[in-house]
Amino acid sequence: MLLTEFPTEDSALELSDSQILLATLRELRQSVYEEGQEIFSRWRSRIQRPAFIDSSLNLAYYLALRRHDLRPLQAALMPWGLSSLGRIEARVLANLDAVIATLAAVCHETLNAQISQPPLEAFFEGDRLLKIHTQELFGNTSQQRRVKIMVTLPTEAATNYELVKNLVQQGTDCVRINCAHDTPTEWSAMITHVRLAEAEIKCTCKVFMDLSGPKIRIQSAIAPQAKQRIYPGECLWLKRDLPTITDSHCFQINCTLPQVVDRLEVGAPVWIDDGHIGAIVEAITPEGALLRITHAHPKGEKLRPDKGINFPNTDLNLIPLTEKDKQDLDFIAANANDVDIIGYSFVQKPEDIATLQQELAMRLPNSTRIPAIVAKIETPTAVINLPELIVQAAGKQAFGIMIARGDLAVEIGYQRLAEIQEEILWLCEAAHIPVIWATQVLENLVKNGLPSRAEMTDAAMSERAECVMLNKGPYIVEAVAILDDVLTRMEAHQTKKTPQLRALHSW
What is the pLDDT of residues 256-309, one digit of tens each? Predict the structure, then answer.
């Protein structure tokens, strides 16, 4: 039976016979092994870290496995009380072998030399490797919980040591310094405060320097006379040059990458301020692009400088490592002993990872510790290329993935965010790569002091990742304490996507 068929009740019934089910599993296992070996052979020359060889091989097997629709097989395995393969990510062949060995025993059949009941340590090897790779990224922190907490530091952290100390004391495992803001002077002061807090509290807190990348933002904005907000149906000029004060009834903006206008086409969507404002390109002129607003709050939205602009269906051909990023790498290299992780924005292809690795190698002396890299997944292209990004990066150094849900949602569409987020988590678990769950986690709590019900559920679901990132805000210390409590409680109920059936005492 082909496993690419759409599952029906009849197709599951076809597999209900133990002999047919066993034969199907053996056929699947052989296919996964052969295709996985072929994928791995294409990657092998790029993998220089021995610690990543087994993980990359498991990733190759997982990719081969997920070319099949496994739903009929899952339905057929359930009545036998066997694994339905729903937690196979970290241990593809071991999981298949365990099911085949057990079913063969039921059928009184002998196993061939290639397949055997995996020993306990082999079955859980993937979990062990994920834990090791997570420790490589975030260190052996003093926190007992599995999921780490990362906090974006505000400018105030450069002058307020008590703020940094309180963050670390409440459970912050890693601080993020956003290179799009502040200067090396503030960054140095922030790092100094982190190291002082570590020494005083006797704990470990990693420093994450986040390169700003080619994020396109509003540079300046001009509103028509007597207007402050833009509404659906109104027009907006995206100018090539600086907006000028005119009697035009249209709002005007220009952006930090003016040549983007040359790549736009009529009908292309444009999103502003993390999707708060949506528009369609109506015309292209020598002056710029005329946009028509399609989405905005009924009471209107303000157009402010420094707000991000996304062009989801337009190939901008951006180079993710900008000249500013290279200058910031100079700072990172000069402070290599204190910078643990480099965040890489708008990564699209494995060549982008190679570029960062080369630029970093040029700046670091041979004996210097190499910082880890975290690739921020923000575009459909990055999602498609995720296996290649992982191999290029983790094949050479400690590596992690950040699901940058703000830009990603705008780029792929909000309705697909949950689906793609799950797929990224599965793929990274198959490669034993830690994931950072980012963007607007407990945002209302951080900014206003009171969380919404939806974001508390989101925070609980973040237990599926290895780290959760909070943004800056006036209530950030309180938010860290609450997130620490939520993650610790959830850990008793769930690990990754596996329910933990501890005794319930509510009833």
Answer: 989 899 999 999 999 999 899 999 999 999 999 999 999 999 999 999 999 999
Q: Which of 180, 303, 311, 197 lies closest to 250 in space, CA to CA?
A: 303
Q: Write down the architecture of domain 218-310 according to CATH.
A: Beta Barrel (2.40)
Strand order in the sheet with 277-285: 218-222, 251-255, 235-239, 288-295, 277-285, 269-272, 309-310
**What topology does CATH give the domain 129-214+318-497?**
TIM Barrel (3.20.20)
Residue 106, judged by CB atoms within 10 A of its CB (0-12, 13-18, 19+), counts as middle
Is the CB of residue 279 less than 8 Å from the CB of residue 270? yes
Provide the 3-class DSSP secondary structure of residue 281. strand
* Of 231, 237, 218, 253, nearest in space to 297 by CA: 231
Q: Give yes or no on whether 129-214+318-497 and 218-310 have one common fold.
A: no
Q: Considering only CA atoms, which of 430, 234, 407 is closest in space to residue 312?
A: 407
Confirm if 247 and 268 have CB atoms less than 8 A apart: no
The domains of the chain are located at 9-123, 129-214+318-497, 218-310
Q: What is the DSSP letter of 42?
A: H
Contact between residue 18 and residue 363 where contact means Cβ atoms under 8 Å apart = no
Reply yes or no on whether the pLDDT at 359 is more than 90.
yes
Between CA 152 and CA 232 the distance in angstroms is 33
Beta-carbon contacts of 171 under 8 Å, excluding residues fewer than 6 positions away, are: 143, 149, 480, 481, 483, 484
C-beta atoms surrounding 309 within 10 Å: 21
Residue 10 has pLDDT above 70, yes or no: no
